[in-house]
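Lab manual, section 2.4: Encoding a predicted structure.

Procedure: take the sequence of the chain (507 residues), apply the prediction step described in section 2.3, and record the output as structure tokens. A sample record is shown.
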Amino acid sequence: MGRTYLVEEAIGQYLSDLTTKLKPYVTGLLIGQCSPQRDYVIRAVRTPPKEEQKEDNVSPTKLASLDEEWITTHASQVSRMLPGGLLVLGVFIIATPELSKDSQNALRRLIFSVEKSLTKRRLWKPSEEEVSDRAALQICSATKNLSEKAKVTINSAMPATGFLTNDVASACNEMVHSKLVTVVDDKRLHKEQRVVCRTYDVQDPKVSSCFIASFCSQSSAKPADWKYQSALSASWLALGCTVNVNIHIPLLATSPNHDLEKNTKNGLNRWSKQIEDSVFLISGQVKDEDTELLEGQKKSKGSIQSSTQFSDVKVLTQLSQGSSRRSTATVQVCSGSINLKGAVKCRAYVHNNKPKVKEAIQALKRDIINTLSDRCEILFEDLIINEGPQKKNFKRQYHVLPQRLFVPVAGSSVMLSDYKFGDEAAGEIQERFVEMLDQAVQAEDIHVAEEMSTVDICPIADNADDAQQKQVTKATLLLKLQQNMGVVIAAAVAVLASIFSFNYFSD
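Recorded output:
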């Protein structure tokens, strides 16, 4: 039995509208949340067209010319705008019947390319029991004409009450069994689409290798159910916390060119392990990870709860290592340091279908790690764009990390995220949401988190004088001498003993 995807009902209309915008095909991302029982898709986002495509409003005519790098870059940008608990669940393609044969092969390539790109950026590793299936959604864009004919037949047989007769209901069932998926809610017919959903295990080394070699057979794809549901994420649970950050990252004297970005990532990687080992207090309590998050809370009967249930979380970071771990200290010569200081706002969302405590804590942990890593990436990208790569080794400077902001999603309790520098106007943020997430945002809906985080970078400049370089070299030699002092003493004793023995026996 394949996986089941519960999909926000508005996505069906969004995908139908895309069929008329670009021909002969449209690609995009599926955004949502995984759970052991089923997956939830709350957003579908088309791939933004390139400049030349914007002018002509036409895509390349063949799937062989599909720009994988452009799509994976879009996926990386979108992943930055997702709070904890949300991720890129898969890829969709809407294509004409002429391209339908090649669509599944294109989807397979994109699934693994996107996952590889996203995995590179992560500072955390997925757990063994985590869901590793990703969705490949294929839609035929020519279904609309057939659907319109079917709708005429259905409307002519529909009584004044607006409900379907038995004959029409039977016709709908035939459409469903012929892979013409019909979205029906309270027996009202909304839309028909030919949808084929399959999944690929991105952690399966056999599937991954056969994908690279282009010898992967259709058997590697597993069928999946694609079911629309209204108000899917209207009452998801939200968790939030503020994490005080004070990270000191040394710049090693032996590091080539004092690569700030690489050193920062290494330092954040060590810090992320501290976050993984931290204790999380939900509403002031330490809860067992295998219990339900809402255990002990009364559920309101009757209407669906539309307001967001928000839990404030406190993060307790361990100051010392446990007794089970061996603590080792190393002395290294450093030419400078990077200091990250401030308070970061973190937020995560989990589905409301009996979520476990460990699901909520895991989502929040990853948001803490991702948000700081993403901000550092954005800062270095901005420095390279504005100052050029030759300026990566500059004198001591203070920088402000981009601030986090949140934007609501219509019909959902989930809020999407983004980052802004102090001099960015609201118009730039609105343009970015339209380009990346295909979502119009009102200026008054942009909520900037009250936070200020700084980066203090103080490496030795590239043009350091010879005296400084000699001093660093001398310190390095002394350090190596100290670390190998025992070997030096042992060698000296051996030499003296040899000399003494030679003189003694000579006499």
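Check your result against the sample. The first strand starts at residue 4 and ends at 8.
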